[in-house]
Amino acid sequence: MLLSPYPTLGERLRVGLLWAWCAMVLIYLVTPLLIPIPLSFNSGSFFTFPLAGLSTRWYEVVLGTERWRAAIGNSLIVAFGTTMLATSLGTFAAIGLSSPRFPARQMVMPLLISPLVVPIVVTAVGAYLFYAPLGLASTYGGIILAHTVLASPFVVVTVGASLTGFDRNLMRAAAISGARPALAFFRIMLPLILPGVLSGAAFAFVTSFDEVVVVQFLASADQRTLPLEMFTGLREQLSPAITAAATLMMTLSILLLVVANLLAARARRRMRVLPA
Angle at the Cα of 28 (from 242 to 228), degrees rounded to 5? Predict the structure, then answer.
């Protein structure tokens, strides 16, 4: 809400109430996410408030136990593989959809982003039934492919948003100058849409790193990811180590999104200072 140059008392009150309401909504949404952080430093063996004492013993359990370290390694393997595949496919799909000559793009776009609205259980069951006869179930490749389906829509949306301001005459000028399509893409288009690509890659990584339902259907006993290990621990043995793992996951996801936003902002600043 914008204030007039000479706001009245009523306008100031409305803006103040709006800011207060936004702050309350933000606190309501963020507070449940912050609860595991103090619990992860509890020296006791149960989820209790107030804390029995401060200790890093549960972080030592997560980072020092073979079971937890294997789960972290599996999560990173799947997340990095998904990020690379989803970013590549999503970027090319967004470029194709942004072309005015692409046939039936109004129909293709809803299909590409449909994994965002389809219940995850439906996707997991469908992936298992499709992959099992092909031998892709209980393989890293199968999990990465399934996570790519879930992560690609984020890349398509973010890269598509970056392409709305892209002038395709630049690609035509590069072609007239003798540049091959691949060279024109890496030298001209990619630097201009890089903020959207980085943002999409960050969302793809977080989507894969935090996913648990598909992994339950497709992963073998040796391919348990960190979220699946946490979910299994909630059912079999309640331990504050779960809160330590959750805190590490949140920290990694937040750091990744912050770094991606910083790199995207830097890329935008560099584009602004380039000579016309």
Answer: 25
Which helix (H) or strand (E) element contains residue 173? helix 169-176
Distance, CA of 253 to CA of 249 (rounded, Å): 6
- Residue 112: inside a domain: yes
Report which residue type is found at 7: P
Do the Cβ atoms of 203 and 154 come closer than 8 Å? yes
Residue 43 near residue 52 (C-beta atoms within 8 A)? yes
In a domain, 23, yes or no: no
Token pair recorded at residue 73 = 């390694």
The answer to whether 148 and 89 are in contact (CB under 8 A) is yes
Domain count, the chain: 1
Q: Position of tokens 């890329």?
A: 267
Beta carbons within 8 Å of 206's beta carbon, 6+ residues apart: 253, 256, 257
Alpha carbon of 78 to those of 110, 112, 145, 158, 258: distances in Å?
A: 26, 21, 9, 22, 21
Assess if residue 218 is contained within a domain: yes
Cβ atoms of residues 154 and 113 within 8 Å: no
The CATH number of the domain holding residue 264 is 1.10.3720.10
- Domain assignment of residue 63, yes or no: yes
Q: What is the pLDDT of residue 276?
A: 47
**In terms of residue numbers, what domain contains 101?**
57-273
pLDDT value of residue 84: 95
Q: How confident is the model at residue 106, as a pLDDT?
A: 77
Please state, in angstroms and rounded to a whole number, the distance separating the CA atoms of residues 61 and 263: 34
> What is the per-residue pLDDT across 66-98, written as a single tens digit (0 to 9) for each?
888 999 999 999 999 999 999 999 999 998 888
Task: Determine contact, residues 45/240, Cβ cutoff 8 Å.
Answer: yes
